[in-house]
Amino acid sequence: MANPAKATRGVDSARRVLQILLQFSETKPETTIEEIAKIHGISIPSAYRYLSLLREMYLVEERNRGSYSLSPQVLRLAAASEVSLDLASVSRPVLERIMHETHETALVVKRIRDAAVCVAVAQPDKSLAISFRPGHIMPLHRGAAAKTLLANLPARKQQQYFAALEPQLLPEELFRLESQLGVIGQTNFAESESEVDSGVWAVAAPVIVSSRVVGAVSIVAPAFRIPEETRVRFRTIVKDASTEIANGILNESLSHPNG
């Protein structure tokens, strides 16, 4: 995956504090000083010092003796982030309707620098393990939704993305990908199979607001249960959904012109 940004110089301590904060997740809601020291390769005193700063800012609190978790203060930050995500809020009802109509997973992703990030998902079958979930970061060159975003970047930025990939794509892989992106850019439509998750088929279309691609909407499903006639129907559904979400975002911006 491409490096989303070059390391900012002179802020190593701040970077470490943020890395510790980002260590918390839905599946890993608690941590210890010893665990922080091990994960980040730092001493126990250093881990304690970084954690003390997070506690001072009311971002982390001690739940049990020696065990730390995020504090309710983080919910305020999450709420502020949610307010700014018109794409997520507008798309959710559309995704829910698609899920009930198709009985498959529907999701929306947006581009953040050199990555595709899932901002909303509606999934009926929790047994289907997919990599895209809210907040999850994926490369731009794998999967229908991500490639839809990459295809709509200027050629210069596409080349910059390819150059930053580690490991580099083989020449034949790069040629095939560039050919796919050319078609996707012309048709505003993409399909993929087993590119992100094995055995999973996906179809996607860009969400375009005022001539700018703000995200991509996608339907994903196990390939074995999606015959061609169903794929044809899903292509229409996802294209209509992209238009509906775009119109919803535009209406939101018109109703709240000052933010």
Automatic annotation (TrEMBL):
Domain IclR-ED: 73-251
Keywords in alphabetical order: DNA-binding, Transcription, Transcription regulation
HTH iclR-type domain span: 11-72
InterPro entries in UniProt: GAF-like_dom_sf (IPR029016), HTH_MetabolicPath_Reg (IPR050707), Tscrpt_reg_IclR_C (IPR014757), Tscrpt_reg_IclR_N (IPR005471), WH-like_DNA-bd_sf (IPR036388), WH_DNA-bd_sf (IPR036390)
One GO biological process term: negative regulation of DNA-templated transcription
GO molecular function per UniProt: DNA binding; DNA-binding transcription factor activity
Keyword Hydrolase: no
Stated name of the protein: Unannotated protein
Organism field: freshwater metagenome
